[in-house]
Amino acid sequence: MPGMEGTLSDAEFGQFQALMQRVAGIHLPPSKKSLVSGRLSKRLRERAVGSFGEYYRLIVGGAEPVELQTAIDLLTTNETYFFREPGHFDFLARQILPGLRPGAGFRVWSAASSTGEEAYSIAMVLMDKLGESVPWEVFGSDINSKVIDKAREAVYSVARNEENIPADYLKRFCLRGTGAMAGRLRVDAALRARVRFAQMNLNADLRGAGEFDLIFLRNVMIYFDMDMKRRVVAALHRQLRPGGWLFIGHSESLNGVSDLLKPVRPTIYCKGGA
């Protein structure tokens, strides 16, 4: 029976589960039913839609692809901060970058970049260790179009982030706001110029992103079922250059997912053929 206005029935929740699995490869367990209800309720009111079932029919009907993206934005989780899981950035600085051939470029993909903190953290390390004379680039992507807009702005709360950014990097690469912007910081222009963002679905064709020397895919696979994990890792393996690296989250593993990449240490993998 369809849910009454304001109530998400089990059947309607099942429709959104299937939609997110099909479109984004994201599994929404039963424990997420209240999250789906809470995040979509306001949108139902804004669109003057009488039930979750009616809203589902609206977004899958094909006539409003923008509304479908809005629903995806609302149902994806984006939790991040600067230099999260700092061991990866230390490995990048101490183990990977010193081994670059002189004059060689370096390209990194933050494959679930959320609001951009991960991508800019990578860029700070690259600017520090490689400077501006070496051709390097950071590409950030996310399925959520709203967080990509925030990432391009590169404006963040000082209180939430200053303890996570190394003091030297904070001084060199961030500008503190004054007046109406007090309490905020912005990544400086030279760094922003080296970071590019785009909305991208990891469940789609990824070849347009190009090839990379390092891919960060952290704290994303926890939302995927095994089939989606295998497909995404295989796709990212194709995007890695020979000798390239893949970093995953500390709560994740490729055990049983893929043997295409060689484990170097927990959460750090390398593609052969360097």
Commentary on this structure:
The strands form 2 sheets. A 7-stranded mixed sheet has the order 6-2-1-7-8-10-9. Strands 3-5-4 form a 3-stranded antiparallel sheet. The chain has helices at residues 10-24, 33-46, 52-60, 65-75, 87-96, 117-130, 145-153, 158-161, 167-173, 189-192, 226-239, and strands spanning 106-110, 136-142, 155-157, 174-176, 184-187, 195-199, 212-217, 240-248, 262-265, 268-270. The chain is of the alpha/beta class. It has 11 helices and 10 strands. Strand 7, helix 11 and strand 8 form a beta-alpha-beta unit. The model is unreliable at 1-5 (pLDDT under 50). It has 2 domains: 10-75, Chemotaxis receptor methyltransferase CheR, N-terminal domain (Chemotaxis Receptor Methyltransferase Cher, domain 1, Orthogonal Bundle), CATH 1.10.155; 87-270, 3-Layer(aba) Sandwich (Rossmann fold).
